[in-house]
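dumping this here before i forget
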Amino acid sequence: MEIVIAGRHTQIPERFREFATAKLEKVAQYDSQAQLVQVEVVHENNPRQADTAETVEITVRGKGPVIRAEASAGDIFSAFDVAMGKLMQQERRAKDRRKSKHKMTRRQAQAFDQAMMGLATPPADAPAELAPPPVVDAELVDTPPSSVGSVDANGDRIKESTLAGSPVVIREKVHQAEPMSVEQAIYEMELVGHPFFLFVDSASGLPSVLYHRHGWTYGVLRLETIPAKTSVAS
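structure:
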């Protein structure tokens, strides 16, 4: 398992690298498919945000879904510990879910899928560990403008452009992903801690956006194209 530690607007002390590397070895104990762990440290220079000046984001990549957690604190060691705690909770939940989903009957799986979408209450005999985790607001970190045609650490293509005669900057990001079911989209959205998730629905083949509403209720927006209207010359 490869571990990559990088800083944005800050230098990474060697003591922190050793500290983080030693703790991240635990990831392999929960996720045998983990191939790469990326740690990004972001420093905020604003004195008013001294208590949250350091943000640590940990991302685990492998054969399965991406798992991500982040936290902010006054120093990078505290921020890492909180982020690491969140990450291990996600790892344990993902591991339990894989085991329990394998043991579920087809009826239980169908009922669980409906419950996840808010169409029914969860089955009484469904494994408790399959209950979706509470959704929290994602901690957003400002990203500096990137160069046109660049590729970020995730392998996504980034492009920036401005509207003619306007200060508006448009940042485009192209992410490659395989079509998936709504249930898989919910699962992957919860693992990265985002309030929404863009995916291609394997059932309909349509570009879709999954978002959390409240409790066990989720919403899905799908985009269906219609033929452009053509003007008829008189």
